[in-house]
Amino acid sequence: MEGLFFNVNNGYIEGIVRGYRNSLLNGQHYSNLTQCETIDDVKLQLAPAYGDFLGALPPNPSTSALAGKMTDKLVAEFRYLLAQATGSTARFLQFLTYGYMIDNIALLITGTLHERDTRELLQRCHPLGWFETLPVLCVATNIEELYNSVLVETPLAGYFKSSLNHQDLDELNIEIVRNTLYKNYLEDFYRFVTTDPDFKGTPTQEVMAEILEFEADRRAINITLNSFGTELSKQERRKLYPEFGKLYPEGSLMLSRADDIEAVALAVSVSSDYKAFFDAVGLTQGGGGLGGMGGSSDGKSLEDLFYQKEMDMSKIVFTRQFTPAVVYAWMRLKEQEIRNVTWISECIAQNQKERIGNFISVF
Amino acid sequence: MSGAVGREAVFPTRQSLGLMKSKLKGAEIGHSLLKRKSEALTKRFREITRRIDEAKQKMGRVMQIAAFSLAEVSYAVGGEIGYQVQESAKQARFRVRAKQENVSGVFLPHFESYTEDSINDFGLTGLGKGGQQVQRCRETYARAVETLVELASLQTAFVILDEVIKVVNRRVNAIEHVIIPRTENTIKYINSELDELDREEFYRLKKVSNKKQEDTAAADREIQAAREREAEKQLTSGKEKEAKEKETPDVPDVLGEQEDTDVIF
């Protein structure tokens, strides 16, 4: 039923995204890339997929410049999609940009707190998180002004309002602010895809709910693991967990009480997927400790497994039709691709070929 | 070499000879002391050179690992964290203490690194994702900086020691090749001058004694003549005059002695 009128408004976008998907690098490309000796070779290998975007790069560019150009392509393609979208699809696409906006705002707040020239900060902002009132943030010179007059104008105002006031901005660690915003964003996004009349009961709800739940769980687990040994209290930590997902509420509660990795492993054992991840990286044995977390020589780290899972989910999204969720999936895949290429070129640049295969290729 | 150094401008007297002799002795003691110092420093210097070599190779490895762990971070976080870390770091966690080490009178700075574990400014960076990588990267870089600090203290010691060894060696060489030969030359000169004076003196003394002998001989002859004449007269004059003539030979002897002392001094 949902497919009946979908293509009237959104067929073009979906078609375009499926086209974009075909230009993603596949295993063959990656194996070619890993054979490269110099960054120039990498550039050459990427030429079919990225074409003129890499043309402007000087010979032997830095890896960050390369990644920057690749991101430019992603941004350009996404902007095109956004311009084509209407109605709730447009809103959906805007939701995708909020994550970047949070990063940008966190950057600007950090800059304002330290009284930096905010204009130069704008250069560092992620282009996808750009919104019209972003430069206005530069006007604010102190944090109260920033909060009262500027942040309320941004699309993220709602996320601030519900959980943060301007004193918090001053006192809390910016990472906590960022993660609070992100939590609110995820919850809002989840609410949007599950309750919006256009998406309710469509494949979009089904697919996106699953992805967002995974994202929420991943964040909760990561925050817990990363907060060990920091000054983040359990109370504060709990506030950062998104209030949905497979782990919510029992798992989240257990996570919030976790003191060590074993407790986390126990908390996530309600979901077989996450349990499998923890088993795979050997965190349940207790011997691994934090040292084994970052991925020992052969094995993948927990983060790698999460990325892998995210990519698999994104790949599966393309089997569904009549949903803007493919845009989300495509963006995630594209970002992973940029990370992969950065990793490969970094390995080449630093002559550390032995770990060059440590990327995630899904096609 | 020793011919070119000349001698010091001193009067060739016995006093300055004594002075020179003590100077020579001092120079020799100083020379051996400085030589020993220079050897100690050179030994230290060689050791430091070896350790610098080790530290540099270690630095190469550590920096490579560190750079790679940064790549890992950028992979895991999927973006730039540099700015955020830069802004949230307010206090130094990794600190350096400077100490002084005394190597045979040379003060070498020695840097000692330590971490202030209570300061953890960007401990929450990458809370959402990549936090472990960030922490690991920080540890790797802390190790890299440790190596750099070690290298820095070695390099500083290297430069200072190099300078000091140069100065000490210059002093050793100066004492060995300039001061000692010059002092020896001066002593030789003073000795030869003194010998010369001695010879002159001897010659003069000989002359004087010759002259005195001549004088005495002439006086003797005169006395003889006078005695002869006197003997003739004695026959005519009385015994009182005879007594007077007995005293007269004493007078020239006394004069002669006085003349001698005058000549010597």
TrEMBL record, chain A:
The keyword DNA repair does not apply. The keyword Ribonucleoprotein does not apply. Gene3D superfamilies: ATP synthase (C/AC39) subunit, domain 3 (1.10.132.50), V-type ATP synthase subunit C domain (1.20.1690.10). Keywords: Hydrogen ion transport, Ion transport, Transport. It holds the Pfam family vATP-synt_AC39. V-ATPase is a heteromultimeric enzyme made up of two complexes: the ATP-hydrolytic V1 complex and the proton translocation V0 complex. This is V-type proton ATPase subunit. It comes from Aspergillus lucknowensis. The lineage of its organism: Eukaryota, Fungi, Dikarya, Ascomycota, Pezizomycotina.
From TrEMBL, chain B:
Pfam families: ATP-synt_D (PF01813). It comes from the Eukaryota. Gene3D superfamilies: 1.10.287.3240. InterPro entries: V_ATPase_D. Residues 210-265 are annotated as: Disordered. Keywords: Ion transport, Transport. Residues 211-249 have a biased composition (Basic and acidic residues). Residues 256-265 have a biased composition (Acidic residues). Coiled coil: none annotated. Belongs to the V-ATPase D subunit family. NCBIfam families: V_ATPase_subD (TIGR00309). This is ATP synthase subunit D-domain-containing protein. It comes from Aspergillus lucknowensis.
